[in-house]
Amino acid sequence: MREDGSRRRWPHLRPLVWIVAVLFSGSACTGAVQTATPPSTQPTVTVPNVQGMALTMALDTLKAVGLTGSIGGYQPTQTVDANAVVSQTPQAGAAVTSGTVVKLVLAQTPKATVPSLLGLSLNDAKIEVKQAGLKIHVGGRRVVWLFQAPGVVVSFYPAGTVITQSVQPDSEVDLGMVIRVVIGKAPRCDPDYTGACLDPNASDYDCLGGTGDGPRWTGVVRVVGFDRFRLDGDGNGYGCDG
User: Fold this and answer.
1) 138 lies in which domain range?
2) What value, to the nearest 5°, has the Cα angle with vertex 13 and ends 7 and 18?
3) How far apart are CA 174 and CA 167, in angstroms?
4) Residue 107 vs residues 112, 186, 230: alpha-carbon distances, Å
5) pLDDT tens track for 58-104
6) Domain membership flag for residue 39
7) Which of 53, 112, 225, 239 could make an S-S bridge to 57, C-beta 3.0–4.6 Å?
8) Quick one: which H or E segment has residue 5?
């Protein structure tokens, strides 16, 4: 009975209790918001200009200001050296956050296809090489012959033409590359004969004192290769010895 009496005695205090509770809760929330730490922001940096730089230098330049460089592709060009930066994203001067990745497009030397120069005269070889966007360099001249003989190189390409080239035909190389060639030359003396110097460009030789009509004549010679003048009639390895 006494408890019911107390409830009837203080009914006007209930609204006050609720108001105090709400105010206390609001002040607690307000204090939490006021003391919260604001979100951190990364520093802003200006993107440097790395166009035209070699890749390693460009990466070091970006790293020095807190940025990261990354290869974003290649572009054939001759305006800068190979593997130098052609373009960048973001562009130079842009304001970005520290740690931003800058995409770098690198220069790639255009390619050319090596033509076949074998058997061509030097002038024709120069024309072919120039049209392909390449360069030519004569690395020497070498005595050539169609048959095996002492002191000469067997070649199916005639004297006065390209007999070797430094890069195989149809190879893909950098534009402007130098192709080295060797030009064949005829021997001063026919390498198929020794004991006398027979002109390799002569149409025919006959033996001195013989019945042949020339137009060139020779004495005894040793046949060491192909007897194209048919001087060794008995097949003993010597011509005009009979």
Assistant:
1) 112-185
2) 115
3) 12
4) 16, 46, 64
5) 999 999 999 999 999 999 887 888 889 999 999 999 999 999 999 99
6) no
7) 53
8) helix 2-9
